[in-house]
Design goal:
about 35% helix; eight-stranded parallel β-sheet; binds fe (ii) ion; binds 5-methylcytosine; alpha/beta; Urease, subunit C, domain 1; TIM Barrel; about 425 residues; 2 domains
Length: about 425
Amino acid sequence: MYDLLLRQCRLLQTDRTIVEADIAVEKGVVAAIAPNIQASAKITLDIQRQLVSPPFVESHIHLDSALTVGQPRWNQSGTLFEGIEIWRERKQNLSLEDVKLRAIETLKLQATQGVLFVRSHADVSETSLTALQALLEVREAVKHWITLQVVAFPQDGIYGNPINEILMEKALDMGADVVGGIPHYELTREDGVKSVHRIFELAQKYDRLIDIHCDEIDDEQSRFLEVVAACAIRSDMGAKVTASHTTAFGSYNNAYAFKLLGFLQRTAVNFIANPLINITLQGRTDTYPKRRGVTRVKELWQQGMNVSFGHDCIQDPWYSLGTGNMLDVASMGLHVCQMTGTAEIDACYDMVTWNGAKTLHLADDQYGVEIGKPANFMVLDAIDRYDAIRRRATVRYVISRGKLLARTESPQTNWYDPT
Ligand code: 17E
Ligand code: FE2
């Protein structure tokens, strides 16, 4: 007698082939995958040949600012910098309660849509470290249904203010999983370079991952990614390192970009593009032609680098929209990065699933629907990855830690023939 039995699944396997099978779950773990399992279960779901996939991974979001849009005012220019100003005002009156309520509401929104692994930034350039403390408490409170990683993110720069460097280290002492940074927003280029070196030192000292907001600007002179690549080559930390946004990469001249791609090839650095928000935040100082302001996703992917897509924001000072739907993110990435070839479309699906899992540095036995692994997966109203993205398929069921966490009905339309 299994805990849960899913009949007639189209299972998207780790090798990306699809098999038709039943899936049995027992004590939080995938216990059997086979055609016509001859057993009963406490709960049986008839999947009717819909797609069973590992869950979505949200590799980049700011939960501390989520759901604050309009507080205290709307971002009228639509720029990153007005967003930072608005957030600076809003963060003066954060409380643990305020951050925790919004973060948990956002995580529920995500989980109901199949997201079971999340990496969130927490702004640590605010002296009380309320955002960080709140997200660390949330990480603990939700761990039985969603996995949260927290990045110590110095929104105002590590050297923007003398206390910020101390706050960074305090955040790591408190238990942040990842060291963040924002070199393009440090006061000088030298400070930016110094900040990247400091981030690597801290990550080694505290044995943490790295995820840097890097070159999130249209300035083709913003070249901190090369510093990240150099530190990754010298420290051999590559797979633990992530460069987020890197939108200036879309503005570099090709001669420089090709050289940089070669340096990056010598590392295992992960990349995160946030297409929904960077297509709106960047290009704001351009007239026409107007840049897309998204990193070179296709070229990085073509040379085998690990690239994932993140949502970045849900209703905050930088982006008033956002629903937590990772297929919206994949679809926007597909369009903006012109990932329209057949393998490219499938790759966009992987960028919100497997590639995100790799960026989060999840252990191999933690992700994927396989016998013996934790039963974390979702059922999509789709037949394959292409169909899922094209139709922004409904996530019908979410199974977390072997338990049914959420169920959603697909929309139903009746057609009344006019003839
Ligand atoms: N802060 C930042 O520096 N960049 C962003 N894209 C967001 C917050 C959302
Ligand atoms: Fe971000």
